[in-house]
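lol ok so funny story. i was supposed to be doing the assay writeup but got distracted and ended up predicting the structure for this chain instead. priorities right. anyway since i did it might as well share w the group, maybe its usefull for someone
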Amino acid sequence: MILYLTEQGLKVSREGERLKLEIGHKKEEVRLAEVDQVVVFGRVSFTAPALQTLLKRGIQVHFLTLSGKYLGKLSTPFGKNIELRLHQFRTFHDPTRRIQLARAFVHGKIHNQREYLVRQKRRLGETSLEGPIFHLKRALTELPAAKNVEEIFGIEGMASRHYFEGLGTLLKRSGFEFRERTRRPPRDPVNALLSLGYTLLLSRIWSLVETAGLDPYLGFLHSPDYGKPSLVLDLMEEWRPVIVDTVVIRVLNWKTIKPEDFTQETFPDEEEPKEIQPVKLGRAGLKKFVKQFQERLKEEALYPPRGKRFRYADILREQVYLLARVLKGESPEYRPFMI
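and the output, tada:
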């Protein structure tokens, strides 16, 4: 279970085999054995025994601002599986294997983007999606001919532009529109939700990558750069449309989140006001979005390698360990999860 803590002023302590969550007269307890990861928004305090227990049990704690900006994490040092990381480094320096992996990550992303739009077109009868769907199919046919990572990135960028064009047409609520992807800062509610969702996805995959013993900073599609979790970004690609984009469209079209849930106020845990204030969720909206994100991870889908249905949360883990087996030569190729 991922424990999301959004209540400002919450105090987390340890009592036996449970985490005790307190704010004012409100108290709640969570069994430590059920917690895989903790994600903290804004100002939540932990007692020393609680933090020590989380560290001893290898439970990572990720810290975000109240607006969803990723700050960092508390975890034990890198895993001890140096042999796996050596395989990871050797694969990075093998141009053929690196391109195979980079191509697989992008193939999974574009396929899932296209399939999501195809399903929505079928459900809504939205003919304007035909153009983006066509361009995404063309991108998939061009991908095998890409000779290097730069060309793969070029195809991915073109596909994403067409995909987001289609994503905007899925919004059926007045008061919301989506014209283009904007980040740092997000300038409208839809971009604010996409950024928040991708950050939640990043924190989950980051924990899985480190638990598997992989180096999060050495990816195959995303080039290594100082402080950049390239491998986490690689593994996120196939999941963006499946987990995050789906949740964003749902919470807006289902009226789970409304225009009044957004704000441009400066939260206490943020820096001084900037020239362009980001659009972000207020406290109530944040709780609603996180709940829908959690529910999405609990939904099940067929996982072909096992021939069974699993929760998306479990398939995420399976895919990370599949990559580890591929790097060690125990599995022939990395196949992205495709809906």
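The two ends are 24 Å apart (CA to CA). The first strand starts at residue 2 and ends at 5.
back to the writeup now i swear
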